[in-house]
């Protein structure tokens, strides 16, 4: 391919040869960002299944008010491992995998800036996962202090050995942190320095903007968690007293370290999904992204505000009143750049020529659930409401609308949308729609009941509860099993289509963007010659055959 | 779509060889990546400092029982040596840019020696202290901060050793070297961190 000007013209694809499946490369130490991207995606999906099975056990336990299925120690271990696996082994690595695959293609680079560092960062993920799983074989079992690992609960050690589940947990999370920092250095360097000629910042796809913003958060906030984890490790294993009030330590200090990272981490997780929305809505609406520049800059605004809001997780931790007020204000401020994005997506869909393929359905579903989560998020930012529902199922409901409803559903949208590019084959539309239907009903049945439960006062992290909470718990459990089942058509679809799906054209969605200019799957070096970019990323509607046709029909 | 820039204008502006140079700039990428890595590292230290200040200002029994404070004079001499070594490293880097390999090696070795002097001095101080790592929150923070910084000094010396070794490969260091620039930057970073640490721990008692 020679220097291809990127214009908003969909070029019809003619010949689509059978793509070659060389599965062995996915088990090797490859430095190709596309192979690493898929390695990340598949590995994290395996952990997603494990984390999902744990949640099935949790919901099976909660289907009756009594703790009659598993003992409480095991239950504690279940929710701790479920949270840890879903956040550190599913959401983070799958998003990094998607970004790994897409960013170099989207900005017209041959690879990431540091390919070997990239591969090393990936291989830490299975090491981290396996290390975490080994804690199931320890005498005292896995960590049980919840995914936030608050001291003093997390630093108590009932055994003689210093190798406790908690010890392994902290080590494993530290490895994940190192991997994330390596990834962040790589992404930021790649995006700043390796864009194709003509690809100015304001010609980058909105997805690249969100990855860039998210990785800046990693660099700015993750080290705080590292500092906290180092101290926690010494407290748990070496008898120091950083967080031990008996010897002068301050347990709330850990909460500051933890939330200084783990709140912005929410945006590390959700920003790239906002990017996915910004890519998918224009394609399936045949319209440019509304307010592209504002959407792009709003990502950076979210990045900035996100590191100024962490104390809203600590309203109930003896936080002074003035500080609560301050953080209530900054937290609510996040709604502004986020609202801008939602407005832009709705305006993009508005009067568009909608095509309800699976990726679009998942995006629409995820957007609806994100709006709902945003509303409950503003409620939680408010001190009086938060004090009332603190540590109840209301919080669990809210963040599951984000982590499953928005992020995981958005991730599925992305996988379906770029599946033809990644594998050179088309997925099965019918199975995709079945997956969406089951998941959308499942998510809402599973997580909506948690809101009334929380308002009524049901605490999170308990394995037994008062009988008056039974109704909503039964509904939630049915929803959870439905949600679990929704994964089956997805697996069938992905495996089946990858093995024997219809060969995909280079640009099946007639999308605009550098990644659609190369073959499906792309060649090793991405571009024979680097493209020269001459326009912005969302030229739909101009020279777009579909829209022009529609306009001509209307006029004629 | 940004239609204000025409295709001709861009095609004229970007010759094929520019595109080639664009992707081959590995040294620039490495330096850029290293700088943002250091920024990220500084957040770890900032977190420790913030934790130190928070605990010091809110804990009634700050020092462990029987400990009256830290002796300042020896660490002050150590500080002077470490800070001076940053200037030596800077001149070493300049000598390399002027392709004066001999001066570079001598000054680089001197920087390493000054770093080693600092580390030995700290080890002696540690061995003479009357409180341990697990003696209250002060003990923990003192050893954590100085130890974590010491680990960085050690890493810096190790990196300088590698750079020194590599300078004996003929032609390797002609006209400067990214590895030397990066190591030198790392060394300045470690120095700045120490100055803050010294003020926090020793001066503000």
Automatic annotation (TrEMBL), chain A:
InterPro entries per the UniProt record, alphabetical: Cyt_c_oxase-like_su1_dom, Cyt_c_oxase-like_su1_sf, Cyt_C_Oxase_1, Cyt_c_Oxase_su1_BS, Cyt_c_oxidase_su1_bac
Domain Cytochrome oxidase subunit I profile: from-to ranges: 23-534
Reaction equations catalysed: 4 Fe(II)-[cytochrome c] + O2 + 8 H(+)(in) = 4 Fe(III)-[cytochrome c] + 2 H2O + 4 H(+)(out)
Sequence intervals crossing the membrane: 35-58, 78-107, 119-138, 167-194, 206-234, 254-277, 289-313, 325-348, 360-381, 401-419, 431-449, 469-492
Entry protein name: Cytochrome c oxidase subunit 1
Lineage start: Bacteria, Bacillati, Cyanobacteriota, Cyanophyceae, Oculatellales
EC number: 7.1.1.9
GO terms classed as biological process: electron transport coupled proton transport; oxidative phosphorylation; respiratory electron transport chain
UniProt keywords, alphabetically: Cell membrane, Copper, Electron transport, Heme, Iron, Membrane, Metal-binding, Oxidoreductase, Respiratory chain, Translocase, Transmembrane, Transmembrane helix, Transport
Keyword Ion transport on entry: no
PANTHER family with a match to the protein in the record: CYTOCHROME C OXIDASE SUBUNIT 1 (PTHR10422)
One term under GO cellular component: plasma membrane
The protein's role, per its UniProt record: Cytochrome c oxidase is the component of the respiratory chain that catalyzes the reduction of oxygen to water. Subunits 1-3 form the functional core of the enzyme complex. CO I is the catalytic subunit of the enzyme. Electrons originating in cytochrome c are transferred via the copper A center of subunit 2 and heme A of subunit 1 to the bimetallic center formed by heme A3 and copper B.
Principal location: membrane
Family: Belongs to the heme-copper respiratory oxidase family.
Subcellular location per the Swiss-Prot or TrEMBL entry: Cell membrane; Membrane
Single Gene Ontology MF annotation: metal ion binding
Pathway: Energy metabolism; oxidative phosphorylation
PROSITE patterns, alphabetized: COX1 (PS50855), COX1_CUB (PS00077)
Enzyme class: translocase
Membrane-protein topology: Multi-pass membrane protein
Annotated gene: ctaD
UniProtKB/TrEMBL annotation, chain B:
Ranges annotated as spanning the membrane: 32-55, 75-92, 101-120, 140-165, 185-204
Listed GO CC annotations: plasma membrane
KW Transmembrane helix (keyword) present: yes
UniProt superkingdom: Bacteria
Pfam families referenced in this protein's UniProt entry, alphabetically: COX3
BP-aspect Gene Ontology terms: aerobic electron transport chain
Domain Heme-copper oxidase subunit III family profile residues, every copy: 1-205
Molecular function terms from GO: cytochrome-c oxidase activity
Keywords tagged on the record: Cell membrane, Membrane, Transmembrane, Transmembrane helix
Location within or outside the cell: Cell membrane
InterPro entries per the UniProt record, alphabetical: Cyt_c/ubiquinol_Oxase_su3, Cyt_c_oxidase-like_su3, Cyt_c_oxidase_su3-like_sf, Cyt_c_oxidase_su3_a-hlx
Gene3D superfamilies (UniProt xref): Cytochrome c oxidase, subunit III, four-helix bundle
Topological category with respect to the lipid bilayer: Multi-pass membrane protein
Entry's family note: Belongs to the cytochrome c oxidase subunit 3 family.
Name of the protein in question: Oxidase aa(3) subunit 3
Source organism per UniProt: Thermoleptolyngbya sichuanensis A183
């Amino acid at each position: 391919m020679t220097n291809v000007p990127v214009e908003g013209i969909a070029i019809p694809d003619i010949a689509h040869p059978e793509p070659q499946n060389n599965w062995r490369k996915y088990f090797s130490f490859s430095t190709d960002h596309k192979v690493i991207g898929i390695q990340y995606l598949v590995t994290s999906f395996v952990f997603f299944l494990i984390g999902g099975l744990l949640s099935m056990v949790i919901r099976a336990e909660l289907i009756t008010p009594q703790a009659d299925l598993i003992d409480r120690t095991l239950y504690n271990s279940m929710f701790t491992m479920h949270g840890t696996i879903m956040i550190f082994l599913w959401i983070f690595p799958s998003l990094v995998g998607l970004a790994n695959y897409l960013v170099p293609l989207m900005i017209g680079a041959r690879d990431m800036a540091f390919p070997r560092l990239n591969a090393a960062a990936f291989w830490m993920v299975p090491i981290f996962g396996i290390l975490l799983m080994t804690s199931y074989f320890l005498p005292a079992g896995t960590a049980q202090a919840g995914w936030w690992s608050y001291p003093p609960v997390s630093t108590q050690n009932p055994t003689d050995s210093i190798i406790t589940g908690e010890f392994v947990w902290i080590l494993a999370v530290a490895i994940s942190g190192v991997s994330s920092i390596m990834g962040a250095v790589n992404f930021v360097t790649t995006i700043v320095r390796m864009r194709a000629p003509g690809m100015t910042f304001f010609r980058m796809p909105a997805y690249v903007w969100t990855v860039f913003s998210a990785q800046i958060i990693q660099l700015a906030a993750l080290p705080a968690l590292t500092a906290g984890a180092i101290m926690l490790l010494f407290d748990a294993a070496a008898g120091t007293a950083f967080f031990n009030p008996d010897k002068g330590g301050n347990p709330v200090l850990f909460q500051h370290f933890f939330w200084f990272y783990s709140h912005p981490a929410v945006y590390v997780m959700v920003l790239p999904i906002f990017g996915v929305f910004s890519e998918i809505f224009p394609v399936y609406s045949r319209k440019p992204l509304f307010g592209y520049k504002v959407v792009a800059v709003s990502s950076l605004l979210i990045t900035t505000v996100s590191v100024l809001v962490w104390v809203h997780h600590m309203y109930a931790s003896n936080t002074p009143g003035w500080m609560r007020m301050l953080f209530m204000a900054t937290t609510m401020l996040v709604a502004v750049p986020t609202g801008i994005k939602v407005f832009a997506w709705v305006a993009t869909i508005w009067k568009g020529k909608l095509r309800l393929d699976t990726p679009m359905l998942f995006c629409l579903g995820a957007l609806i659930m994100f709006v709902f989560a945003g509303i409950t998020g503003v409620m939680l930012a408010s001190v009086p409401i938060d004090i009332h529902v603190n540590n109840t199922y209301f919080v669990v409901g809210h963040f599951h609308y984000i982590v499953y409803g928005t992020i995981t559903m958005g991730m599925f949208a992305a996988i379906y949308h770029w599946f033809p590019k990644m594998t050179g084959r088309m997925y099965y539309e019918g199975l995709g729609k079945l997956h969406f239907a089951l998941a959308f009903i499942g998510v809402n049945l599973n997580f909506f009941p948690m809101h009334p439960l929380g308002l009524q006062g049901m605490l999170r992290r308990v394995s037994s509860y008062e009988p008056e909470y039974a109704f909503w718990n039964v509904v939630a459990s049915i929803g959870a099993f439905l949600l679990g089942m929704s994964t089956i058509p997805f697996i069938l679809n992905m495996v089946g289509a990858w093995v024997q799906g219809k060969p995909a054209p280079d640009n099946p969605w007639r999308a605009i963007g550098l990644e659609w200019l190369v073959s499906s799957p792309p060649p090793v070096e991405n571009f024979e010659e680097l493209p020269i970019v001459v326009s912005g990323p969302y030229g739909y509607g101009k020279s777009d055959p579909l829209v022009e046709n529609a306009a001509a029909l209307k006029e004629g | 779509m940004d239609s204000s820039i025409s295709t001709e204008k861009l095609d004229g502006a970007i010759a094929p060889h520019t595109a080639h140079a664009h992707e081959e700039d590995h040294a620039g990428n490495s330096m850029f990546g290293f700088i943002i890595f250091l920024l990220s590292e500084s957040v770890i230290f900032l977190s420790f400092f913030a934790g130190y200040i928070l605990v010091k200002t809110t804990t009634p029994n700050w020092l462990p029982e029987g400990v009256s404070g830290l002796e300042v004079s020896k660490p002050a001499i150590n500080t002077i040596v470490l800070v001076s070594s940053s200037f030596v490293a800077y001149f070493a880097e300049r000598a390399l840019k002027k392709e004066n390999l001999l001066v570079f090696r001598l000054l680089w070795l001197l920087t390493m020696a000054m770093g080693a002097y600092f580390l030995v001095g700290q080890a002696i101080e540690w061995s003479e202290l009357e409180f341990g790592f697990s003696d209250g929150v002060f003990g923990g923070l003192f050893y954590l901060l100085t130890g974590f910084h010491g680990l960085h000094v050690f890493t810096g010396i190790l990196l300088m050793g590698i750079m020194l070794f590599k300078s004996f490969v003929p032609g390797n260091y002609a006209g400067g070297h990214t590895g030397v620039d990066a190591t030198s930057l790392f060394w300045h970073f470690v120095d700045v961190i120490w100055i803050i640490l010294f003020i926090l721990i020793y001066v503000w008692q």
